[in-house]
Amino acid sequence: MVAHLPPMILYDYYHHAEEIWYQNDMAVGDPYFMCNPYDGEDSSCSDSLTFTTSIDDHKHYFGVEVSNFGSNGCSNDGSKALKSAKTLSRPYRIQRMDKEKLAKKVLNAKKQSSLHKNKILH
Length: 122
What we know:
The chain is mostly helical. Helix content is 34%, strand content 7%. The protein has helices at 66-71, 78-89, 99-121, and strands spanning 20-21, 33-34, 60-61, 64-65. The longest helix is centred in the C-terminal third of the chain and has 23 residues, at 99-121. The two termini are 38 Å apart. The model is unreliable at 78-95 (pLDDT under 50). InterPro entries: AB_hydrolase_fold.
């Protein structure tokens, strides 16, 4: 996750806390810093750096190239990646729902949402 995108100067975005910041190459076992748990714009963490449009710092995490990790089925092990690819290539069975059943589900969801709103307001 890129902690400061979009930047705060655009549309007053504010980022969630608590950032875990690696001030290094982010290799396995590297030390990290736990930033202010209440301030998503902690100036002693990544917010202390100048904003650039480069994504180079976000291509590798814990010694793994992110794009290769995804194309390998989110695994560093080739056999797991192959199994994942086989699983993904299976045809999915999609159950069709008749219009009446779908309408009932939508109506029930609206009722539940309305009940929840009433509980919050009262």
